[in-house]
Amino acid sequence: MSSHKVVHAFYTDDDVLMDAVKTVKKAHYHIEEVFTPFPVHGLDKAMGLPHTRLAITAFLYGLVGLTVATVMMNFIMIQDWPQDIGGKPSFSYIENMPSFVPIMFELTVFFAAHLMVITFYMRSRLWPFKKAENPDVRTTDDHFLMEIPAGDDVDALQTLLKDTGAVEINITEKH
Amino acid sequence: MGSHYEAPIRTPLVTGNKSYHDVSVDVARPVEGRANKHWWIVFSISLAAFLWGVGCIIYTISTGIGTWGLNKTIGWSWDITNFVWWVGIGHAGTLISAVLLLFRQKWRMGINRSAEAMTIFAVVQAGLFPLIHMGRPWLGYWVLPIPNQFGSLWVNFNSPLLWDVFAISTYLSVSLVFWWTGLLPDFAMLRDRAVKPFQKKIYALVSFGWSGRAKDWQRFEEVSLVLAGLATPLVLSVHTIVSFDFATSIIPGWHTTIFPPYFVAGAVFSGFAMVNTLLIIMRKVCNFEDYITMQHIELMNLVIMITGSIVGVAYITELFMAWYSGVEYEQYAFLNRATGPYAWAYWSMMTCNVFSPQFMWIKKLRRSIIFSFIISIVVNIGMWFERFVIIVTSLHRDYLPSSWTMFSPTFVDIGIFIGTIGFFFVLFLLYARTFPVIAQAEVKSILKSSGDKYKKTSESHE
Amino acid sequence: MGRGDIVKDTTLEVFNTKDAKVWNPKPHVSKDHVMIPTTDPGADLWTEFDRSIGHHFNLSIDLNSCTGCGACVIACHAENNVPVVGKSEVRRSRDMHWLRIDRYYSSQDSFIDDVEKKDNIAGLGSSLSEFGELENPAANPQVVFQPVMCQHCNHASCETVCPVAATSHGRQGQNQMAYNRCVGTRYCANNCAYKVRRFNWFLYNDNDEFDFNMNNDLGKMVLNPDVVVRSRGVMEKCSMCIQTTQAVILKAKREGRPVKKDEFNDTCACSNACESGAMRFGDINDHDSEIFKLKNDKRSYHLLEHIGTEPNVVYQVKVRNTKEI
Lengths: 175, 462, 325
Description:
The complex is a heterotrimer of chains A (175), B (462) and C (325). Chain A has five helices and four strands; from the N terminus they run βαβαααβαβ.
C-alpha cells in the first residue's frame, strides 16, 4: 500500500508564514504540521491547535507534592517516632508546623516542576535516543516548513502556496 | 511589519546585521571549530587547580576535619563560607532565566543560556561542601528520610541543615531541567548541522529528537513560563533557607531576621558579578559581541549597583538594630567586627560591596568593559568576605569570653576552595566548546524586533 | 546583662541585708507590656513537655565552695574516656574537656572597676580602644572561676539544628548525644551558647599521631568499659554520666525497690570527685532530695538565663566575705 503524499512549503520569514497559514486554513485545507526554528507567536492559534493544559497539570502536581510533604513529615515527626528535640512540640503537626513550612514549599515546587516536565516530554515524545522527525534539516536553522496532505488537486494547492510567498515547494511521500 | 514592532529608539539587542542563518552559524562556530591555545592554557590551569582540590578533599576525608583550621569554638569557616558563596553565585542564572522571563525582558536571551550553565556549575560546587564538611561524610546519606533498620530512625525536620538538603536538591534539579529543556531546540540545530558522525550521534542523543513542531513549541513556551514561575520563588526560598542556617541560631550576629532578604539580595549581587566576569571573557573569545552587547553589560551593571546598594542598606540596618536593641551581646558582635582582630576582613567587605558598585552610577564607567570586569571580580571577593565575616566573627567571640579564640586556614582549606574554582572553570570551559552557549532559538525570535538589521529596515519604511 | 549573666557574685553584707532581687536579679522579658521572668511558661511559644513524672536530673555548682581545684575535670576525663590530644592541638583550641573550669581575670584591679570602665565608654574614640584594653588582664587581677559543662538545656538550641537527629532530649532531662548517629556537621557546637560541645577532629585512639593512653594496650586498660570510645568525626559532650545513673536505676529495678533518697548524689563523676561539696547532683522530682533544695535556693541562677535555654545545671551566687566586691 502506498503512504500518502504530502506537500512541503518552505518559508524564510515568520510573518509570511503566518499569513500563509491563515490563507491555507481559509481555503479549508488541513495543515498536518508546521516546523519552525523558533516559537512563532500566534502560530498555534492560527493553526487551530487547542491550548495546552500543562500549566494545569503543574498545579495538580504541586498539590501532590504538598500532600506528600505533609504526610511524610507528619508520619516521621509526629506519629512514628516523635522526639523531644530542643523542647519543640512533637504532639501535633500544627504545633510544630513552622518548622515544616520550608520543606512543604520545596517539595511542592519539586513535584510541580519535574512531573510537569516529564509530562511535557511524554506528550511531545521527547527522550534520549528518540529520532528527530523534522523532514528538512533547515527547519532548525532559518526555514519554516508547512506540511499539507496532497489530496486530489495537488496543482491548485501548489499554486495557492506559491501565491502565499513560499520560497520552495516539494511533494514527497510521508512515511 | 507584522507582530514584531519595537520602538526604534530602543537599543538593538542583536547587532551586526544578523540574519537567522547568521545566528545559527555564529552559535555553532565554537562547537564545530577546534579549541585555540588560550582555551587550552586556561583549561590546563583550571584542571590543575581542580586536581589539587581533589587531593585536598581526599586528604580531609581520610585523615579528618582536623586537617582544616577549625576548632572547638569555630566549627564552620571556609567550608560554609564557600558553600554560601557558590550557592549565591548560582542564583543569578536562575534569576536571569526565570525572573527576567516573567518580566518579559528580551535582553535576557543573549545571556540566559550561559548564566544558567553558570548556575548549574556553581551549585555543583556548592553541593560538595555539605558533604565534605561532615565528620563522617560516608554516612552523608543519613540526611535522607529513607526507611531503615535502626527503628526506622528518621531525620530531624526542625533542622535548617535538613531544609538545605531539600532546598539545594530541588534547586539543582529544577535548574538542570529548566536549562536542559531550553537546550533541546539548540541541540537540534547543532544536530541538523553536524556532519561528523560522532557529533551527529551525540547531538541527536541530547536533543531528545526535538523536531520543532508547532504543538511542541506551544508546550515548550508554556513549560518555560511555568518553570520560570516556579523557579522564581524557588530562588528566593533556597537562599532564604540557606540564610536560616544562621538566622535560626542563637549566636549574636547570626540571630537576626534581616538575613533572608539580605542574603537573597547578596546572592543576586554576586551572581550577576560572576555572570559579568564570565560573559565579558566569553564574548571576546568567541566573538559574540553582537549578541552580548554593551547594552547587556550595562543592564547587568545596573542590577549589580542596585543589589549592591540593597546589601549596603542591610549592613547599615544591622548596625542600627544592634544599637537600637540595647542588647550588649549584639552590640559587641558588631563592634568586634569593625574594630576587632578580623576588622581587616570586615573593611574589605565594606569596600568591595558597598563602595565599589556605587561607581556604576557613572555612565561612562558602567559602559566600560575593563571597569565592569574589574568591578565584577571585586564584588565577588567582597561577597566571599561577607560570608566569612558573618560566620567567623560571630563564632569566634560569642557569649562566653572563655571560648573566644582565633581561626586561621590551613593549606587544605585554601586548596579545596581553589579546587572548586578550578572545577567550575573546567566545567564552564568544556561547556563553552560543546554546548550552544547562546539561546539561539530565542535570539532568532527577537531578531525582527530587536535586531539592528530589522530596525534599520523598519526605520526606512517610516 | 553582660557580666552578670555569667558569674554572679555579691558581698556578705549585701547578701545578708538586701533582697535576692538585688543581688540575684532574674532576667525578664516584656510580654503584653508586662515584664515576666524568662523562665515563666508564658514566655514560651509552645507547649512544654511534662517532666514531673520519673526522674529529672539537675546539677548544682556552688561558686562559693568551688576552689577551682580541677578534681572534677580529671574525674570526668577518667570516667568518660575523654581523649588526650596533646599540646599542639590544645594550642589550636581543640581540647576535648567535657567539663572545663573557666577563669576570668579583671583588666583593672577589680571586676567592679572593669564594669565601671565599660559603662563609661562613650563615643567612637573610646569604643575603638577601650574594649580592646578590657581584653588584657591586670598585673594583679581579681580572679573568678567557674566550672562549665553541658547545661542540658530543656530548650536546647543544639538539638533543633542537628539534621540527623543525633542529639535529642531524654525524659530524665539530659541532652543525649547519640555518637553512632552523628555525621559531624558541627552545627550543634556552633549553636551552643556555652560552647560545651567537643568534636573529634582526628582519630584519637590507635593513632600514632596521638601516642597517649589510647595507643597502647596498657594505656587502654585505663579506659572505662561502661563508656564508648568515640571515633573520628563525631561530636561528644557531658552526658551527666548517664551510664552511672542508669546503673543506679537498674540496680534498684533488680532489687525490686524504688531508687532511694539521695542515691543519685554520687553518680556524676564530677560531683563525686568534688571535695568541697560545690557540685551536687540529683533528681529534682524527689522533693526531699538535696538537689531540689539547691535548685530552689535563693542563691541559684542559670548561666545566660536570658537566652531562654532553660538549663538543668544551676549555679549558686558567689558570696564574698568582703565589704566591697
